[in-house]
Amino acid sequence: MSKAKVATVWLDGCSGCHMSFLDMDERILDLAGKMDLVYSPLVDFKVFPEQVDVTLVEGAVSSEEDIEKIRHIRQHTKILVALGDCAVTSNVPSMRNPIGREAILKRAYIENVQVKPHLPTVDIPRLAPNARPIHEIVTVDAFIPGCPPHADLIYRTVADLLDGKTPDMTGTRFG
Ligand code: SF4
């Protein structure tokens, strides 16, 4: 039987969800019997593959680049999973929403800078007006809450999905 193709993606998050993924420790070897990690910050493949079976997404959608990325990933993924509270609810990145994009940029790049303060126009992805959970942009098939999500929950969810089951979220607390 061929192995499932699995990807993990990092949008506007702190990488804590990926650290929790690694906290599955030796259970990653169990999963490795059923899956290949084909794209991830944890591996060295730089192009999102044409077709992925399961993609776990960490982080909120906060920039125009994130919006393009998540739409592209959705088109090339069978089962899309929101990994962690930033992806599920927008969590920490959404703390900027009530302040407003322009005020945040001014504070970070002009008011708090002493040498050549200016708003960036190149190299930095343009911020979206608000940070949003990924289900507001694309359809999400499964949610793994937590900040970060517990490694046990990540393992159970990924193992269920690889076995073709609907993940059992009984007892899982959202928010
Ligand atoms: Fe970091 Fe928590 Fe957001 Fe995961 S959910 S990216 S651990 S802030």
Structural account:
With 175 residues, the chain is α/β, with parallel strands linked by helices. The protein has one domain (4-98, 128-162): NADH:ubiquinone oxidoreductase-like, 20kDa subunit (Rossmann fold). It is built from six helices and seven strands, in the order βααβββαβααββα. It has helices spanning 16-22, 27-32, 64-75, 85-89, 101-111, 151-162, and strands at residues 4-10, 35-39, 52-58, 61-63, 77-83, 127-132, 142-144. The strands form two sheets. A five-stranded parallel beta sheet has the order 2-1-3-5-7, with helices on both faces. Strands 4-6 form a two-stranded antiparallel ribbon. The chain is elongated and about 55 Å long. The model has no long low-confidence stretch (mean pLDDT 95). Iron/sulfur cluster is lined by residues 13-14, 16-17, 58-59, 84-86, 91-92, 147-148. Residues 13-14, 16-17, 58-59, 84-86, 91-92, 147-148 line the site of iron/sulfur cluster.
List the helices and strands and how they pair.
Blueprint: E1 4-10, H1 16-22, H2 27-32, E2 35-39, E3 52-58, E4 61-63, H3 64-75, E5 77-83, H4 85-89, H5 101-111, E6 127-132, E7 142-144, H6 151-162
Parallel strand pairs: 1-2, 1-3, 3-5, 5-7
Antiparallel strand pairs: 4-6
Quickly list its features.
Rossmann fold, 175 residues, 6 helices, five-stranded parallel beta sheet, binds iron/sulfur cluster, two-stranded antiparallel ribbon, alpha/beta, 7 strands, single chain, 22% strand
